[in-house]
Design a protein that fits this description.
Elements: E1 4-9, E2 16-24, H1 28-35, H2 41-44, E3 48-58, E4 61-68, E5 79-90, E6 93-100, E7 111-112, E8 114-115, E9 118-124, E10 132-138, E11 140-141, H3 148-170
Parallel strand pairs: 5-7
Antiparallel strand pairs: 1-2, 2-10, 3-4, 4-5, 5-6, 6-9, 8-11, 9-10
GO biological process, one term: cholesterol import
GO cellular component, one term: cytosol
Domain START: 1-171
């Protein structure tokens, strides 16, 4: 009820490009502040277990390392990602986008995942200024020895839960 999720084969790798979209009751700046790398994300994103800003290039541009919890009764082991992240104005709203980098050593007990070009667009609804349309394009390669059906199940439910968790955090 919080979001709609679609998928199609990715042009970047053998998995899927997911599109998630939903209306969120809040202004674009506050929503994106909760999504981009920074202090809010760990407070509400139940999948994320750690986040470190490794390098900052300018105010809205950084390299971050984050880890995710295991999923589906740990069939999907905890993952680690190192992403370049950039946030900028886009039309009347904001865009926060990223891509994984081959950077540093993989920490023990994690599999290094890879995010192909991803992004979140957040624009105000014209007729309802207190609401915003949040659209995400996600193409995550979890890597490791995983059945594709487990990845598909995890991605769809993770994206749907992302919206409901975000809405709770913004209240």
């Amino acid at each position: 009820k919080d979001a709609t999720v679609w998928r199609k084969p990715s042009e970047e790798f053998s998995g899927y490009l997911y599109k998630a979209q939903g209306v969120v009751e809040d202004v674009t700046n506050r929503i994106v502040d909760h999504i981009r790398p920074g202090p809010y994300r760990l407070d509400w994103d139940s999948l994320m277990t750690s986040m470190d800003i490794m390098e900052t290039f300018e105010e809205n541009c950084c390299v971050m390392r984050y880890t995710t919890a295991g999923q589906l009764w740990n069939i999907i082991a905890p993952r680690e990602f190192v992403d370049f992240s950039y946030t900028t104005s886009y039309e009347d709203g904001l865009l926060t986008c990223g891509i994984s980098l081959d950077y540093g050593e993989v920490r023990p007990n994690f599999v290094r995942g890879f995010n192909h070009p991803c992004g979140w667009f957040c624009v105000p609804l014209k007729d309802s200024p207190g609401y915003s349309l949040l659209t995400g394009y996600i193409q995550t390669e979890l890597r490791g020895m995983l059945p594709q059906s487990a990845v598909d199940t995890a991605m769809s439910s993770t994206l749907a839960n992302f919206y409901s968790d975000l809405k709770k955090a913004l209240k």
